[in-house]
Amino acid sequence: VVVENVLRLDLLPNQLKTALSVQMPLRAHVLTRQDLQVASGLCGLSSLRGAGEKRSKDHVEKEERSTENGETRRETGREDGVKDAREDASALLTPYAVVVDVAHNETAIERFLQFLEHHYFGIPVRVVVSLTKERSVSVLQPLMNYLSFPRNNRLARLHFVEANHERRKTAVSVLEELETDNRVTSELRTAILAGLEEQFRVLSETRAQTDEKEQRASEEETESLIHVPDNIRRYTHLLQSCTAGHLPEVLRFAYRQATAEQSVLVACGSFYMMKEVIETLGFLHGPVDEIDVNERCVTPVAVETGSEKAPL
């Protein structure tokens, strides 16, 4: 006799539809073409008509000059690697792809990188990452092992930024580990500092267009609220673009950069960054569970057994 272990749920049609529509955890979540159009609008990108025409002008002229029989020919197809969404001239420019993953340790990051290798082999990758305070910066080493080689560097940039959550790993602790933790390789240290410098420079230029007094007040507030140890004091300026609250700004900047260079934009490293990522890029419009999945359990209430009934 064969006994099948089958879980049977008697659900009404509307209940079944709701159950099947529950979003899976954010593991290797690739934004759809429609998601990318929404995200591009939120990140302030222009349409293909206008920005794209200027960018492709040189490519068309080059083909015209290379025609052997003297006849000119016009570019009618799309550039290599550009997705079907761009065939519509009114479509917004987008990165090559955007992938979100809750990879938070070395094993999970390696598994995610294997996914990228399989689906986006040879494509440059730009990463926005946050960590929880329990993690060492060294968990990001697989990014270097998979993407960064002397003759084939696919890591366009690595951007660290704090998630706006009490269990986040702070930028100060990251900078301290870069100076003191011997598990952090020189390649990883260089990559993180380069990403921090780039986002600081670009975001500072953007803020310079705002009120100068407001910008100075923000810088002074940052310095007063954050205690910076002496051994990383030379990096104090970087804290103006990677502390809690800066993630949306950094992500929008990275999205625009990934669009310009046609790289894959990756957001990963911590579950706690995902609320900001989802809101900034505007995807996953369904119900969102507000419960902290890593929340510590409260002390259970003892339930009396025996002749006495537990209170209701």
**Overall domain count:** 1
Instruction: Give the helix/strand class.
Output: alpha/beta
Strand content: 5-15%
Rounded to an integer in angstroms, the radius of gyration calculated over CA atoms is: 24 Å
| Helix content, binned percent | 40-55%
How many H/I helices?
A: 10
State the name of the first-level CATH class. Answer: Alpha Beta
**Average of the residue pLDDT scores:** 78
Q: List the secondary-structure elements in sequence, H or E.
A: HEHHEHEHEHHHHEH
Strand order of the largest sheet: 1-2-5-3-4
The first-to-last residue Cα distance is 44 Å
CATH superfamily label = Mur ligase, C-terminal domain
Number of strands: 5
Unreliable stretches covering 5 or more consecutive residues: 52-87, 295-305
Gross morphology is globular
CATH domain topology: Protein-Tyrosine Phosphatase, Chain A
Sketch the major β-sheet: 5 strands, mixed
Q: Which architecture per CATH? A: Alpha-Beta Complex
